[in-house]
Design goal:
450 residues, alpha/beta, five-stranded parallel β-sheet, 17 helices, 45% helix, globular
């Protein structure tokens, strides 16, 4: 498969899980020319009314929600990402629904306060307010979740910016496929959106791009976040940062063990816990039957696996999961004596019921339906553990309970999203991502006080 991005001078072969691809690679000269091309279209992009962009995104989402249109893309993505076709379909459909017209309009209203503020001057007590684009935005995107690519591009277009999007070598396909489908609807998308690929180890190219951009939005891990932050600081560029995050669930009260366990299982399977909004730990109050809950959670993961199965990349992937399971069983069993494992015979799912809290390094074993269930006596135990181990990485907390004081403490600590179990991967239109609004950050609020 050959992928022709917006610009590039050479092709490089890359094999991802047996899929052979030829990626069009951009060099520094290609990228500088593309940046200049996009910059020339700033005024043209600014003149496009918001309603037109909403219509394009809505039509594109409906195309992808059509099973016949998206079938081939889903099969390719399943192979690249090592996820099953049903899981890719489940995740992709949920993400595309966010781009339907009603949802986009709600997002704009919630984030910016007025649907017209991107197009015109809106009356305020002091005069008039308007939202203006920043200019050229560079999107540096990791490949751990399709929704990241989708929303970054959509917000970039809605904010009337020109957008240069760098795809990840781990998943170089979806941004390109989404771009092509947008161009099928309106070819003028090319005037304000460009998809590129280059080797991330080439820091000189990053330096050149940041220097010549007006704003940068970054989605990535700890190492890449530090790198991009340093370059942005060097050139004093506006940075929208979405770094590495870790999410968790807190079960304070169990009205219905089966329903809540089923919902927690839905949260666990999304993006195979590789995205920031998938839980890696479930804290549960000891006043509940914790053994019963852990057992039901294992059963729920088994049942959901029949309709939305886990895919296996390599034999090593399965072996490592089982090794991690055995390691934790021995480690925490020796420490606590009553550690229990509720798991499949193979590597399909692993539920570790641990008397204590997991060591920080073991949290990073929680991928591909691998979860710690940790009982607590007092909510302060959860607060202290999260404060000591996860504070720098907080984002989403699934919560079953009614203690507003606890929610207040956790959000004061750094949690930015609190949902019911089963809804951790669902962002209602206008809710924040990492405590900020991307559409807000991608634009400047200007005022007219005369």
């Amino acid at each position: 498969m050959r992928i022709n991005y917006s610009t590039g001078s050479t092709f490089a072969e890359k094999e991802l899980n047996g899929l052979k691809m030829e990626l069009n690679i951009s060099n520094e000269d290609n990228i500088l020319k593309e940046i200049e091309r996009l910059k020339k279209n700033k005024i043209k992009s600014h003149k496009i009314i918001t309603e037109k962009t909403i219509e394009i995104l809505d039509k594109c989402a409906r195309m992808w929600l059509d099973g016949e249109y998206s079938k081939e893309h889903i099969n390719i993505l399943a192979q690249i990402t090592n996820q099953s076709v049903p899981l890719i379909t489940y995740e992709l459909n949920g993400s595309m629904e966010m781009l339907l017209k009603d949802n986009i309009q709600k997002t704009i209203k919630e984030e910016l306060g007025d649907l017209d503020i991107l197009d015109t001057w809106v009356k305020r007590s002091y005069g008039y307010a308007h939202r203006q684009p920043r200019g050229l935005i560079f999107h540096n995107i990791s490949g751990n979740a399709l929704v990241v690519i989708l929303m970054s591009i959509a917000m970039g277009l809605l904010s009337k910016n020109c957008n240069l999007v760098k795809v990840s070598g781990d998943e170089p396909y979806f941004a390109y496929a989404f771009y092509k489908s947008l161009c099928e609807i309106d070819d003028s998308i090319k005037d304000r959106l460009s998809i590129i690929y280059f080797d991330s180890s080439n820091e000189n190219i990053y330096d050149t791009i940041v220097k010549n951009s007006d704003s940068i939005i970054h989605w990535g891990g700890e190492s890449s976040s530090k790198k991009i932050s340093s370059i942005c600081a060097k050139y004093q560029k506006h940075l929208i940062m979405h770094g590495q995050k870790i999410s968790f669930e807190v079960i304070d009260s169990l009205d219905d063990s089966i329903e809540i366990a089923n919902n927690v299982a839905k949260d666990i399977i999304c993006w195979e816990q590789k995205a920031c909004l998938s839980p890696r730990i479930v804290f549960i109050n000891r006043k509940n039957d914790v053994n019963k809950f852990a057992k039901i959670l294992g059963k729920s993961l088994k049942e959901i696996g029949s309709s939305i199965p886990k895919a296996y990349s390599t034999a090593w992937n399965s072996i490592k999961t089982i090794q991690d399971r055995q390691y934790c069983e021995i480690k925490y069993g020796m420490k606590e004596n009553d550690t229990k494992i509720y798991s499949s015979y193979n590597a399909d799912y692993t539920v570790i019921l641990s008397k204590g809290m997991p060591d920080k390094e073991d949290i990073n074993r929680c991928f591909y339906r691998f979860i710690f269930v940790c009982p607590y006596d007092n909510e302060d135990e959860v607060y202290e553990y999260v404060s000591e181990n996860l504070k720098e990485y907080l984002q989403t907390m699934g919560y079953a309970g009614d203690d507003i004081g606890f929610i207040e403490k956790m959000t004061l600590l750094g949690v930015s999203i609190v949902t019911k179990p089963g809804y951790m991967a669902i962002h209602y239109p206008g809710t924040s991502h990492d405590g900020t609004h991307n559409l807000y950050d991608m634009t400047l609020l200007v005022s007219r006080q005369i």
